[in-house]
Protein: 2,5-dioxovalerate dehydrogenase
Amino acid sequence: MNLTGKMLIGGQAVAGSREAVQAIDPATGKLLEPAYPGGTGEQVEQACALAWAAFDRYRETSLAVRAHFLETIADEIEALGDELVERAVVESGLPRARIQGERSRTCGQLRTFARTVRAGEWLDVRVDTAQPERQLLPRADLRQRHVPLGPVAVFGASNFPLAFSVAGGDTASALAAGCPVIVKAHGAHPGTSELVGHAVARAVAKCELPEGVFSLLFGSGREVGIALVSDPRIKAVGFTGSRSGGIALCQAAQARPEPIPVYAEMSSINPVFLFPAALQARAEALAQGFVASLTQGAGQFCTNPGLVIALQGPDLDRFNAAAADAVQRSSAQTMLTPGIFDAYQTGVGALASHARPVAAGLSTEGPNQCQPRLFMTTARDFLANSALQTEVFGAASLIVQCANGEEIRQVAEHLEGQLTATLHLDDGDLQAARALLPTLERKAGRLLVNGWPTGVEVCDAMVHGGPFPATSDARSTSVGTAAIQRFLRPVCYQGFPDSLLPAALRHGNPLQLRRLLDGQREA
Ligand code: NAP
Structure:
């Protein structure tokens, strides 16, 4: 397919007329054709009007039709073949194997949501049958199901050009819930976005759904993004990116006459606690695992281990020496965008002015090269300087040496909200780990033992969320099937005749759902 530089409003390819976004090959610094002129206010309105017009029909599609739609999107993405992989590689600087893996994850995620939709558990049907004879007051027949919120604005993430972009996790979960989606493409990978956008639009047409179920807009966040979030027909927002961007969208959503939820995943440094027995038994192996996790994908993961916390002493010295050695042997890697590279350099500079540099990776000629970095500080300095817990997006990490267990507890307590917290422990560490858990449960969405936080499984039990600033709403996850719940709300139907009830709630349970019937779960 020839890239056109056009948006998709419903099924129509339409050219914008505002300032254009244009991808840059971060490995060479060269501009990539075509340019993508930004959408106008009227074009944002058009997409919202179409999404609103599509909503009532799309939200009442059968479970089978909606699941088939999600599977068709996955098929259409796979049918794009190598063209998609090549464009995503050149726009992101990520290796081909990574992009191929991300395509599998994207399609797998769409198919997982199809399975979720078919199972119907997300409807969370509850039935309390009428008790006309009840003393003192009779009870009416009461039935609850979940309905979708309405059209959702999705902001594609820079660091997952497929799995968290146009047809990524936010889009898949919103479409699964029954919400039309309007994507504001990330300016770093517009060509990839156009290709995937056409795949989604083809699936909409093949499944004979209303065209407003999906639109794709290009343009700046401050213009197109804010116009989208401010439109009264948009009822929720999905976002992954910077803390400042997420906060700006939350403020725009709260300033509306009708405020709406924003599910923004923003900033996390993912603390890793090394307990004494584990450190004594395998300091060098832990250092290898840590540096592999830190440098994966040039550290451009929201779950990158940006903080290591342990008791000072000879075992931590062994860990530090092995980690420094591994970092020094690590190659530089191309970062996603010049902006992200500049932010990394600034962040590393700030760390260097507050903490002791321990090691730097190999440097490479060429633009936008992330040189891995390791720093060290004491618990006392960490507690005194909040700049030390600012996320540095990239392969940089800080080791915090603590004088005793009480300092470890204070450091944990001092942390902002996190996506993950990791504990490396042996049997001899269980008591100390148990004592830290209540604090870590308050701080993070996912707690790991003897693993590394990078690599987020898409499954039913996953939580990719956490208290602010990890996300703007700690009650939810943006990865895994529970992500569908962000875009749903409960409605109760009281005293309805059977013929007026939605199918999910009818007597006789025609959809064969596992309902909660008079307090008992149906088999
Ligand atoms: P970003 O700057 O937050 O941009 C993400 C999206 O939000 C873009 O579409 C952007 O539009 C929009 N946006 C940003 N600020 C906005 C505002 N004030 N109002 C309205 N829309 C706004 O993120 P990025 O480009 O991906 O990377 C920049 C930094 O974000 C990185 O250096 C890193 O620190 C952080 N980041 C964190 C994660 C994570 O998972 N924790 C992931 C990616 C990035 P424009 O196209 O106009 O910019």
Remarks:
- The CA atoms of residues 70 and 100 lie 19 Å apart.
- The mean pLDDT is 98.
- Residues 96-119 form the longest helix (24 residues).
